């Protein structure tokens, strides 16, 4: 009984399987191949009063013909005992396992003991692994089988997470398609018609219509950026923090504001998205640190920021412990009681649209980073991005 060989095979199987279904089946086949024992994975269906056979293998015989196994009504079966205790259950004498009696004809092997191993990781159960041994198994052998259950359960959790991410990407792709085509196309038509109307008459309300179209166009662009920002990062490249900061500063209108880069470090990131992250951070600082913005009627929407006489400064640099970077400005900041939800989509202060920091947070999460907000050294906003 070489359980270490079983463990190694399961690790190899986890690396080559494509999904949960394939992993369950190839794992059973690997165990049956190494130990020469029948094996199956069952998940209880309480409503139907049975165990669903999700994967199985018999040495040189293929999977079990059964797709379900009846649950013992006396709750004496090992599956029930595993569910009740959350621990490995060993039945030294196979005749005392009521589930075995339902499967005996399919095994075509002289089984003597059984072992039932819970497949649980992160508080989530993926059923029970059942092994039917052709050799005696001591009742105290529980600990020997736990690593097998652990590697199986962790693999199943990892595949479920990957499948969930794939599903989310597909949903986001549908949102992206809807926004980029179903919304942008009629918007383009409306803008085109507005151009024709403006060439024929000069009504003051048309300026407001034009402004509304521009805001819708900007919103569509921001939604698309938000959707792309949250996609998992598949390829990260080493980038100079200082070079990224300075390049992004050149890409946007900064007015009289100034940038100070306090040092450098290497960050590993998707270049396009990390550029977007800094552009959104800069835009947020400039929006809240400027003296105002123009409305379509030419009026100013005042923003409590650096003021007419105070030049906005944006300072960026690596954290002292080397585990991330920060950006802080001399603008008006965010009140203490609002910072906990300032990263949510739609949060806005005067003059903001409520999307920039949400996009920053999505990009950071896609990289496995963490974003925190606090007050800057000169009263503005300090954004800390922890990369490790």
Give the strand content: 15-25%
Please state the structural category: alpha+beta
CATH fold description of the largest domain = Beta-Lactamase
Instruction: Note the total helix count.
Output: 9
- H-E string: HHEEEHEHEEHHEHEEHEEEEHEE
Q: Main sheet, how many strands, which sense, barrel?
A: 6 strands, antiparallel
The CATH class of the largest domain turns out to be: Alpha Beta
Helix content: 40-55%
Gyration radius (Cα, Å) is 30 Å
What is the residue-averaged pLDDT? 81
Total strand count, please? 15
The 3D shape can be described as: elongated
Distance between the termini: 42 Å
Q: What's the CATH superfamily of the largest domain, by name? A: GAF domain
Instruction: Estimate nothing, just give the exact number of structural domains.
Output: 2
Layout of secondary structure:
Layout: H1 3-16, H2 20-35, E1 39-45, E2 50-57, E3 68-70, H3 78-85, E4 89-91, H4 98-107, E5 113-121, E6 124-133, H5 142-200, H6 205-229, E7 237-240, H7 241-251, E8 258-261, E9 266-269, H8 271-289, E10 292-294, E11 300-302, E12 313-318, E13 324-329, H9 356-366, E14 370-375, E15 381-386
Parallel strand pairs: 8-12
Antiparallel strand pairs: 1-2, 1-6, 2-3, 4-5, 5-6, 7-9, 10-11, 12-13, 13-15, 14-15
Helix pairs in contact: 1-2, 1-5, 2-5, 5-6, 6-9, 7-8, 8-9
Description:
The structure is a single chain. The strands form 4 sheets. The chain has a 6-stranded antiparallel sheet, sandwiched between helices. Helix 1 runs parallel beside helix 5 (142-200). By secondary structure, it is an alpha+beta fold. The protein has 2 domains: 3-162, GAF domain (Beta-Lactamase, 2-Layer Sandwich); 235-388, Heat Shock Protein 90, CATH 3.30.565.10. The protein has helices spanning 3-16, 20-35, 78-85, 98-107, 142-200, 205-229, 241-251, 271-289, 356-366, and strands spanning 39-45, 50-57, 68-70, 89-91, 113-121, 124-133, 237-240, 258-261, 266-269, 292-294, 300-302, 313-318, 324-329, 370-375, 381-386. The protein is elongated. A hairpin with a 5-residue loop joins strand 10 and strand 11.
